[in-house]
């Protein structure tokens, strides 16, 4: 089966379904089955909504993190072993420890907000 077209609510081919499903409608797809000579119209609906807080990304994972106004990246932060208060602070910011790099990684936006930007370590590709 091949998807030939995907339409957003309000576009041609979605208006009747938009009246039926309202804001629950995400998109309408037209799929074609060449073997059986059939065309199918499928829809994607929102059936449940709940609050969700994502876990902080792993230091090696490239995932944009949305903050209030920015998409920022994970940056390495050098905190010495004896600086327990700073370790607690970076944990509270969602930071994670990388044993391999021997650095803490956290969202750049939060690091700068906390005034720890002077501790950011430039790393290759992270």
Q: Care to describe what's here?
A:
The protein has 126 residues and is of the alpha+beta class. It has two domains: 2-45; 65-121, no CATH class. It has helices spanning 15-21, 84-92, 108-113, and strands at residues 2-7, 25-33, 38-45, 65-66, 71-72, 74-77, 96-98, 103-107, 120-121. It has a four-stranded antiparallel sheet with strand order 7-8-6-9. The protein is elongated and about 70 Å long. The two termini are 39 Å apart.
Labels describing this entry:
126 residues; alpha+beta; 4-stranded antiparallel sheet; 3-stranded antiparallel sheet; 9 strands; 17% helix
Question: What is the tally of helical segments?
Answer: 3
Pairing-aware structural class of the strands and helices?
Answer: alpha+beta
Instruction: State the end-to-end CA separation.
Output: 39 Å
Tertiary shape: elongated
Strand ordering within the main sheet: 7-8-6-9
User: How many domains make up the coordinates?
Assistant: 2
Radius of gyration: 23 Å
Task: Profile the largest sheet.
Answer: 4 strands, antiparallel
Percent strand:
25-35%
């Amino acid at each position: 089966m091949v998807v030939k077209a995907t339409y957003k609510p309000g576009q041609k081919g979605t208006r009747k379904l938009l009246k039926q499903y309202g804001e629950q409608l995400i998109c309408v797809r037209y799929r074609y089955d060449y073997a059986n000579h059939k065309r199918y119209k499928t829809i994607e609906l929102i059936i449940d909504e709940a609050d969700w807080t994502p876990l902080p990304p792993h230091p090696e994972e490239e995932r944009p993190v949305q903050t209030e106004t920015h998409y920022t990246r994970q940056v390495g932060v050098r905190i010495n072993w004896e600086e327990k208060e700073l370790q607690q602070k970076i944990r509270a910011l969602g930071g994670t420890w990388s044993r391999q790099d021997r650095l803490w990684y956290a969202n750049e936006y939060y690091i700068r907000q906390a005034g720890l930007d002077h501790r950011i370590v430039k790393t290759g590709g992270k």
